[in-house]
Amino acid sequence: MHITRIPILNYHKIEVHSDIGITSRHPARFEKDILFLREQGYQTITFEQYAAQAPLPEKPVILTFDDGYQSVFIEAMPVLQKYNFSGVVFIPTAFIGKTNDWDVQFGGKKYRHLNQVELKELAAAGFEIASHGRTHQSFTTLTPSALKQEFVQSKQEIENLIGKQVQSICYPFGSFNDSVLKLAEQTGYHFGMASLYFKKIQSQRPELALRRFNIYRQDSQAVVKRKITTNFYTFYGLRDWFFQLGGKLTPFYQNLRF
Ligand SMILES: [Zn+2]
Questions:
Q1: What is the pLDDT of residue 240?
Q2: Residues with beta carbon < 5 A to ion ligand 1?
Q3: Mean pLDDT of the 146-165 span
């Protein structure tokens, strides 16, 4: 099965508290999602396992966690382990062990990113730790040399920390263009996460611009089900594409005071 045919679901924070960004999933709902996937016969794989040509389960799914929040360790990891699942964690390496100062903090609420010890424990438990760049800036706004640093340094920092090769990257805000894809390939990445998009890409490597569905706070189980089984050219594809525009405006919100 080609990687582009494997459903990829994306989470951010797994938190009891909601926030305006709508990307925070309640832990109880998260466990229901996992239980549902399990009951439907899905099994998780990681990009590392795919690249190593490990035998694929009959119904593979990839669960990704953007931004590497501490709640992945506290809330998601125990649930996933309970059902023998794993996931892929994308961390902006300049924020390891720090708060999310790159993001808009509505009401001044900050969230902590995973620290080195937690990242090592996740890696030891079979989770894939991968790059979300260094500084969580949109890759399409950076100079070529700054962009290269995002790719190269984040990869190096994670590899130094966990002692494993990093093969996957998630483009902050899902923003990418053909030069981003080219540089990803040149700097040794095999898989790139792009969220939803409808534009044509020139790259011959579609695995460097993989589409994913985000799971939002309000998504019901029926919606989660649709997101695994339907393609992106549907109501939910269009709706989620629209939601992502909100995320892309983060640099703009940061200039406002809340
Ligand atoms: Zn992000």
A1: 80
A2: 66-67
A3: 98
